[in-house]
Amino acid sequence: MAEQLVEISDTEVRIEFTLNSKCRANVTMKSLSPTAPIAFKVQTSSPHKFLVSPPTGLIPPLSSTTFRVVLKPQTHYPSSFPRSHSDRILIKTAPYHSDSAADSEFLSQWFSSLPSTVDFKLRVAFVGPSLLRHAVGCGDVDSARNIIKRQRSVLSELSRGEAESLLRVAAELVNPDNMVNLLLESGLKVEPVEADADSEWKSKGWNELHVVAASDRMQEVSDLVKRVSDVDHRDKEGRTPLFIAAANGNRRMVETLIEFGADPTAADYCGRSAVDVARDNGHEEVSKALERGEMVLTAARRGEFQLLESLLRRGAAVNYRDQYGLTALHAAAIKGLEKTVALLLKFEADIESRDNDGHTPLHLAAVAGGVETVEALVKRGADFNAVSNGGSTPLSIARALLHDDVVQALINKPGM
Asked: Is the Cα dihedral 390, 395, 398, 402 positive or negative?
C-alpha cells in the first residue's frame, strides 16, 4: 500500500444546498511530507455540475492548502440526499521532485504521465436549511435526521420565524409524529405561539406566503413558493403577497417574489398595484425598483440597448415579469435581438423563465426564426427540449413555422 502523502480535512464534501444558487464547500489538505512538495489534482465525477478551484497545485512540505468545490445552480433538489449516490470527488497526489514552475496545465499533463498516484475518494453530501425544509415537507424522516446529524448547527441557526414555520410544515404532514419528535428532540427551539396568531392572519384571508412576505424571512421564500398553489393568492382585500411586501417597503422580498413569478401589476380591490402602495407609503426605493422593472421590459421590447444597459447597471430587476409572465429576455428573444439577449444574460437573466403559457425565451426565439438568437441561447445552456404547457418544444415550433435554419441549429446540438 502506497504511503499517504496528505491528510484530508474530512471524508466527505458537505455542500449547503440552495435551489438556483451556486453552492460552495472548502476542502483542506495538509502535506505529510517533510521534504518534497506534494502535487495534487482534483477531479469530479460530474464535471457538468461541479467546478473545482484550483483544480491542481503544489503543497509545500508540512503545509496546508485549500481548494473549493462549487456546485453550479441547480433547478431541482438532489435525487438523493444528504449523501449523493452518484457524485464523488477524486484527489490525486504525488511527490513533486522538480524545480520547474508548475502551472495548472503543466501539472494536469504531468499527472497523466505518472505510472501511479496516491488517490483519495471523497463522497459528496448535501445539507443546509433549504434541503432540511424540503425533507420535512416530503415527510422524509431519514433524510432529515441525516442532515441534522451532519450539520448540528442547522436547527440552532434558524430564526424564530423559520423554526416556527419548519415545525408547522412538519405538523401538517399526514403522519406528523415522527418528524415533529425528531425536530424537537434534535434541538429545534420554538417559543409558544399565542392561539390568536394563526387566527389573525387567517381572518385576513392570508396564506403562508403572505405571512412570510410581511416579514423578512427571506430564506423561506424559495421553498415556500414551490409549495403554494398560487403565488398571487389574494386576501380578503385583494392583496397579493407581493403587494404586502411592497407596502412594507421590503425591496429584497419584492424582487424575489417577482423572480418567482409574482404579478407586479396585480391590483387590490381598490385598484392599487404594488408600485402604487409602495409610492403611497413613501417606500421610494421599492417603487423605483418596480418602475425600473417595467422600464427594463419596455427597453428590451424596443431594442433600446443603451437605456437597458443603464437600467441594469443601476440594479433594475432583470427578471421582472408582466401580467403574461413575460420577461425582458422573452421580449428580446421574440424580436430576434441577439445583442440585447447577450446583455440580459450577462446580467444573469433567467434563461429558463417561463411565461404563463410555459414558453421559455428559446421557444419565442424559435417563433421569431432568428437563428443567431437561438444559437446564443443554446450556447448559454438553454434547454432545447423544454416543453410548453401546450406540448411544444423549440424544435417543433421551428418546424411548424418552416424556420429551416433554426431547425438545423437545434438538431445539430447534442441531446436532440
From this structure: negative
* pTM greater than 0.70 (yes/no): no
Task: Please enumerate in sequence order all residues whose Cβ is within 8 A of that of 379, keeping only pairs 6 or more positions apart, or say none.
Answer: none
Concatenated DSSP letters for 354-381? --TT---HHHHHHHHT-HHHHHHHHHTT
Cα 82 to Cα 145: distance, rounded to the nearest angstrom:
10
Is the separation of the CB atoms in 103 and 97 below 8 Å?
A: no
Question: Mutual orientation of helices 305-313 and 284-302 as an angle, nearest 10°?
Answer: 150
Backbone phi, psi, residue 382, to 5°: -60, 140
Q: H or E segment at 404?
A: helix 404-411
Distance CA 264, CA 253 (A): 12
Straight-line distance from the first to the last Cα atom of the chain, in angstroms, rounded to the nearest whole number: 46
Q: For 336-372, what is each residue's pLDDT tens digit?
A: 999 999 999 999 999 999 998 999 999 999 999 999 9
Q: Which three cell numbers stand for residue 374?
A: 437561438
Question: 84 near 106, Cβ under 8 Å?
Answer: no
Radius of gyration of the chain (CA): 25
Amino acid identity for residue 175 in this structure: N
Tell me: the pLDDT tens digits for 84-111?
999 999 999 999 988 776 788 889 889 9
CA angle 408, 411, 412 (to 5 degrees): 80
Domains along the chain with CATH numbers = 6-126 (2.60.40.10), 128-193 (no CATH), 286-411 (1.25.40.20)
Rounded to the nearest 10 degrees, the angle between the axes of helix 404-411 and helix 361-368 is 140
Give the separation between CA 303 and CA 66, rounded to whole angstroms.
Answer: 46
Q: From CA 94, how far away is CA 38, in angstroms rounded?
A: 6
